[in-house]
Amino acid sequence: MHYVALFVAATAALLGANAAQAPQHWKDLVKQYQDNTLKQLPQGNCTKKNIVTRPEWGDLSDKQHRKYIEAVKCLHKKPSIIGADKAPGARSRYDDFQAAHIINTPLIHATGSFFAWHRWFLYLWDKALDEECGYSGSQPYWDWSKYVDLPFKSNPLIDGSETSISSNGRYIPGRNGTLQTLPVPDSSSIPGIFTPPGTGGGYIYEGPFVNWTQHLGPYYNQTVTNGIKVKPNPGPNALGYNPRPIIRDFNNTLLLQLNTYDAVVQLIENNTSIHGFQPSFFGGAHLEAHSFISGVDNDLFTSPGDPLFWFHHAQVDRIWAIWQSADYATREAELDGTITLTNGK
Ligand SMILES: [Cu+2]
Description:
This protein is mainly alpha-helical and 345 residues long. It has a single domain (6-344), classed as di-copper center containing domain from catechol oxidase (Orthogonal Bundle), CATH 1.10.1280. The protein contains 10 helices and 4 strands.
């Protein structure tokens, strides 16, 4: 695979996107992104011919779905190399990625490095899928808007079939939402992240990831009160060994607020500076989709433990790339803030 930068890599993925129900304005933004990105080529070793593309899951064939699922399971079988000093609970190469996210969480969320760190993280993930597990494609994205007003079973990514990333958790009634406090010195002055209960709350029960075991986390022990009792992590900073299946709690209401095509267009158009774009996106569409997935995704630290994380963040990266492409000269290297969570406030 050839990489220059992932904003370049992501370009041609959009060429295959099925945006049939998308408003014209959104299609124009996507077209502008493709044109402006291709105009920059060749760049280094990257040309129009070898550019890496990111597809939307629904645009891939079942055969391609199976290959991807196989590669993720392969990373989950390969032994961890991160080292017990860093992450004593890590058992697999998959866990190494989750551990890196846990360890870096306070530096990479609501900080200047949020977008760029996660772009690099996706790049390393792609590289591991390719070099360690022989997956020749690139991480597909989850187009939230494409399925947002349909039952989640309409989305082949989460329809629970053998070619999906499994589906919802079993429904558990009578739950409260979860509240994550932020890992800052005086968290009492900063509102946490509240997620209301959704339509699942239990373990996933259909599709290829039913027998998947997560090993690290949780960081936030309040998830214990949200339906299934999750054992607190026995190690330091959620990095001890704590095997358990995946919990999900899909909630379309959350996506309908900030993840529709119209909302995403507004996010891009209304924010001409990174200082508006990043906080609006981080606290808006980005968080809503994490909360839609729920389970381990109600945990800022451990969210990559659910394989849906990669699809969600490929879409976050795509939206950032579309925003950047409107004015590469200014926006390509523009960052918002320091590397202290919430900028030390
Ligand atoms: Cu993250």
